[in-house]
Amino acid sequence: MAARPRPKVMTLTDRAADRVRAIIARSDTPILGLRVGVKTGGCAGMEYIMDYAAEASPTDEVVEDKGVTVLIDPKAILYLLGTEMDFVTEKMSQRFVFNNPNQTSACGCGESVAITPAVPETYVSAV
């Protein structure tokens, strides 16, 4: 029996993929992709982090979506499982946002979130 393919840890909307590709194209140095993760911080407990990645670490979860390579630290996988990254334009700002089914709350300033790790068996059986 063939194994069922694993779901992607996270996906990007077309807007987010377009914006990441545009940023990477303007870089003066080679960029493999975008490194995404979470860290402890802020008043709600956790913060999303993003950075450019010149190379992948052997332990990174590599997600290819809409022509963008996203590298995820293995410690962040259960926090990001099922997340969709979007790019929104509002009257006075543009920013990336994370639509995360594991997020349980956010602080009032929008800088940090509370995230409950996903239960992999539950997520896989629901897909």
Automatic annotation (TrEMBL):
Its domain of life? Bacteria
Cite a single Pfam family from the UniProt record.
Answer: Fe-S_biosyn
List the Gene3D superfamilies hit by this protein, alphabetically: HesB-like domain
Q: Where is the signal peptide?
A: none
Entry protein name: HesB/IscA family protein
Question: Which family does this protein fall into?
Answer: Belongs to the HesB/IscA family.
Provide the Core domain boundaries: 10-111
PANTHER family xrefs: IRON-SULFUR CLUSTER ASSEMBLY 1 HOMOLOG, MITOCHONDRIAL (PTHR10072:SF41), IRON-SULFUR CLUSTER ASSEMBLY PROTEIN (PTHR10072)
